[in-house]
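User: Structure please.
Assistant: Input sequence and predicted structure:
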Amino acid sequence: MNETPMRKQPAEQSEPGRPAAPFGARGDTRPDARAEVRPGDVLASDADRDRVAQILRDAFAEGRLDADEHAERLDAAYSARTNGQLEPLLRDLPAGRRRPQPVLPQPPGETTNLVAVFSGSTRRGRWRTGRRINAFACFGGVDIDLTEAFFDQREIVVQVTAIFGGVDIVVPENVGVRGSGAGVFGGFDVEHEEASDPDAPVIVVRGMALFGGVDVKRRKGKRIRDLRAPRD
């Protein structure tokens, strides 16, 4: 006796001329890939937060924000997850009315982070500075010695925050130094001085000291011998 083979049920198809159901239909919980993402919903990067923090520090130094406003907004900036949460922090500041320039992430390995919380952190000897150094001292101290460092870039930014602590920076005597920061019940001692050689590296120190101190000193006798030599 021959058995009649069972027919396969045809797969469900969309009607002619009707688009297929998007993600999320029929119990599919995946996000709709075609959903429009608003600019304010884009996740903020560390570079975005640093840009906002620098604008807030400048506004505080100019007297546009008092100490409490500055501390509150700075905390909100570093806690923000999206660009939409960063925008209101600058809305009533001159810099917030200008269209922000895109911030490109720095290549890996180009940032050095030094953190001292109830402790100390030191960087000295033969080491590569990279493009940026972040120093954070809270009830502690950070010592940065650049007198024997390799300068891979012509401009090195040192972003400092000292809260009930201190950040001390020692530089060779033939480099340029620029500073932009504020001291609140503390000191931000960065003397602006250009190097005599236009090819000399420039160290830009930015940030703030709250009940703490930031100090930059030149060490006499310590010089970069050949400013035009390739950076090995």
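The CA atoms of residues 23 and 31 lie 6 Å apart.
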